Amino acid sequence: MITCLSVSHKNASLPMLESLNISDDKDLARSLYSENIVQECVLLQTCHRVEIYCVLTDSKTESAVKQILKSWSAKTGVSLDLISKTVIFIMEEQH
Hints:
- With 95 residues, the chain is α+β, with helices and mostly antiparallel strands.
- It has a single domain, classed as Beta Polymerase, domain 2 (2-Layer Sandwich), CATH 3.30.460.30.
- It has 4 helices and 4 strands.
- It has helices at 14-19, 25-34, 61-76, 80-86, and strands at residues 2-8, 38-45, 49-56, 88-92.
- Strands 2-3-1-4 form a 4-stranded antiparallel sheet.
- Strand 2 and strand 3 (49-56) form a beta hairpin.
């Protein structure tokens, strides 16, 4: 299952968007791989958005997304509660 966790200028202020920028994207990916949360992961960051695209390893999507948000929180210092309220979650079934 392909998932996208996204925050953009459409749903967050510029300071919030800057706070959610992940400075070490490789470290985040390594963390998600080592915890066996994702099979594939790519991070897309621009001045208008931060998005994490993943293929999840677990069929328990809610649990995996929570783990990704926890990792994002740990890497940025933004509280998990605030990230959870700001990030949009998009899921697409693979065919």
